[in-house]
Specification:
Layout: E1 3-7, H1 13-27, E2 31-34, E3 41-46, H2 51-58, E4 69-77, H3 83-90, E5 99-104, H4 108-130, E6 142-147, E7 152-158, H5 184-194, H6 200-203, E8 209-213, H7 219-226, E9 230-234, H8 241-244, E10 249-252, E11 265-270, H9 276-288, E12 292-300, H10 306-324, E13 328-333, E14 341-348
Parallel strand pairs: 5-6, 8-9, 8-11, 9-10, 11-12
Antiparallel strand pairs: 1-3, 1-4, 2-3, 4-7, 6-7, 12-14, 13-14
Bound molecules: S-adenosylmethionine (SAM).
Length: 351
């Protein structure tokens, strides 16, 4: 039970290793991180008893940038037949769980295994229930089974309120046909990730105003408009006519890095592909000068040292806000819909 398995986008295993090792070092949890290139996961092997649990208790999953899912547990080998009995045997030392998710890694092998998992899930649930290992209730840990093959599975645990909100951290969002671009899903995923669902009506509503920097053709503007907001869309490129027809969008052909609203707005979103330091500075200015209350901004990742670079930018922003003596909550995640980028969400707290 002393290994932490962390899922991620294939190609970002080293970032996960750096990130989790930094947390472990800060918390003085002994262990080492390892990962195979393009495996879509990394492991942190704790070398002291209870290390993985201590790490999961001290770190909020939400604060992690690159991991999509995590669980503490152990890899086991399953036989060709009667896998359930062997699994139950291994689960003897596990607590009663409140839910179970069968997961795979985000690789081609993983995709091929999804069908097996679907078929295996029903009999497994039944057997877990019968053995008293699954009592569907909130507050109890979640059993996370990550199948690497039909024969090898990571049997893990995570707190339901301190792990991914979707299996494997992959949202099942439907692309709205009326939206002008697929990027629309990125902003929708950001909202699911950073804003609790019960706060959407208070924080994303029709009494609000927003600015979309680098808006064309309007996938992000579409999300703001869908919540009823009045949006100023900044881009030299054209906006989708369907959005302009709503009467909720004002399109300005201006430079997103120099534009400032006459009145403060509730939301600023920015999807301009630029050097990450420039986008981070823009974000700091908007929140720091009170031009907006909340913001979602994409940061393109550099080629190397991607975790170190993002960390540096986040630390710089934090220091900037401390200097201005304002309180800001800062979150950053590589979303499922992000490729070589991460998404930041900032919210100014207090008056
Ligand atoms: C990735 S696209 C945005 C896609 C958009 N979020 C959507 O969902 O449809 C980036 C946009 O940024 C715009 N852009 C690039 N530099 C800009 C700048 N300095 N000011 C404003 N817009 C800029 C480009 O014209 C492009 O339309």
């Amino acid at each position: 039970m002393n290994t932490l398995l962390l899922h991620c986008r294939p190609g970002f295993e080293n970032e996960v290793c750096s990130e989790i090792s930094e947390h472990a070092a800060n918390l003085q949890v002994a262990g080492y991180a390892k990962a195979k290139a393009s495996s879509a996961c990394a492991e942190f092997v704790c070398t002291e008893e209870g290390g993985a649990e201590r790490l999961m208790q001290a770190v909020r999953f939400k604060s992690l940038i690159f991991p999509r899912q995590w669980a503490r547990g152990v890899f086991i080998v399953l036989p060709e037949t009667d896998r359930i009995s062997v699994l139950l045997e291994h689960l003897q030392d596990f607590p009663v769980c409140g839910s179970v998710w069968l997961e795979v890694l985000d690789t081609n092998e993983g995709k091929e295994l999804s069908n097996f998992c679907k078929k295996f899930e029903v009999p497994l649930r039944k057997a877990l229930g019968k053995a008293g290992k699954l009592v569907e209730q909130s507050g109890k840990p979640r059993l996370l089974l990550t199948f690497k093959s039909g024969r090898e599975v990571f049997v893990g645990l995570a707190e339901a309120n301190n792990s991914a909100i979707w299996p494997m951290g992959i949202p099942r969002l439907k692309f709205p046909r009326e939206a002008p671009s697929r990027s629309t899903l990125k902003l929708e995923e950001a909202w699911h990730t950073f804003i609790p669902r019960e706060e959407w009506d208070e924080r994303l509503n029709g009494d609000m105003t927003g600015v979309d920097l680098g808006a064309a053709p309007g996938g992000w503007t579409y999300q703001l408009v869908k919540r009823g907001m009045l949006v100023t869309a900044i881009d030299n490129g054209p906006m989708a006519q369907s959005l302009m027809d709503t009467g909720l969008v004002q399109h300005l052909m201006a430079d997103g890095f120099t534009y400032k609203p006459r009145q403060p707005v509730d939301w600023m979103v920015c999807d301009i592909v630029e050097k990450p330091a420039r986008n981070a500075a823009l974000l700091e200015t908007w929140i720091g000068e009170g031009l907006c209350r909340e913001a979602v901004v994409n940061l393109k990742l550099p080629m190397k040292q991607r975790y170190a670079e993002v960390r540096k930018l986040l630390d710089r922003m934090e220091a900037g806000f401390a200097e201005r003596r304002i309180k800001v909550s800062i979150a950053c995640k590589q979303l499922y819909h992000d490729r070589e980028e991460v998404t930041c969400h900032l919210r100014r707290l207090g008056k």
